[in-house]
């Protein structure tokens, strides 16, 4: 929970996210819109979908930047939907990626 009256609180960035897990058929929302989540939820969903080896997780930060991690044949790629730029994504760096993306873009 965010305590708006506590001026000494540490930043608690939130992200709007959606995902698809093909094994279970789970999605972030049936309407396809992104839901509000914290960093821990984003990290958890990335790891869950990685265990399956297919599917995707998409996140939008407060600046409107969107990144999508897609799995195909067990390999993960980080995708910038605006430019369709793709780079290899290593799940071992998930915590660092989420922290940097939420705080710095």
Keywords:
105 residues; alpha+beta; 2 helices; globular; 35% strand; seven-stranded antiparallel sheet
Number of helices: 2
Percent of residues in helices comes to 10-25%
Q: What sequence of helices (H) and strands (E) makes up the elements?
A: EEEHEEEEH
- Gyration radius over CA: 14 Å
Average pLDDT score: 83
Beta-strand content estimate: 35-45%
| End-to-end gap | 23 Å
Question: Outline, from the CA principal axes?
Answer: globular
Tell me the structural class: alpha+beta
From the structure provided, what is the oligomeric state, counting identical versus distinct chains?
single chain
Low-confidence stretches: none
**Number of DSSP-assigned strands:** 7
Main sheet makeup: 7 strands, antiparallel
Protein described:
This protein has 105 residues and is α+β, with helices and mostly antiparallel strands. Helix content is 24%, strand content 35%. The protein contains two helices and seven strands; from the N terminus they run βββαββββα. Strands 1, 2, 3, 4, 5, 6 and 7 form a seven-stranded antiparallel beta sheet that branches. A hairpin with a 4-residue loop joins strand 6 (75-80) and strand 7. The longest helix is centred in the middle third of the chain and has 14 residues, at 39-52. It is globular, with a radius of gyration of 14 Å. It starts with 13 loop residues before the first strand and ends with a helix. The model has no long low-confidence stretch (mean pLDDT 83).
């Amino acid at each position: 929970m965010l305590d708006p009256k506590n001026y000494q609180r540490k930043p608690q960035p939130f992200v709007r996210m959606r995902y698809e897990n093909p094994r279970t058929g789970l999605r972030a929302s049936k309407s396809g819109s992104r839901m509000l989540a914290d960093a821990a939820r984003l990290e958890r969903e990335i790891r869950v979908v990685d265990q399956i080896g297919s599917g995707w997780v998409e996140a939008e930060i407060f600046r409107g930047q969107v990144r999508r991690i897609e799995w195909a044949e067990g390999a993960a790629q980080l995708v910038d939907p605006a430019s369709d730029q793709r780079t290899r994504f290593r799940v071992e760096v998930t915590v660092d990626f989420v922290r940097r993306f939420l705080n710095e873009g």
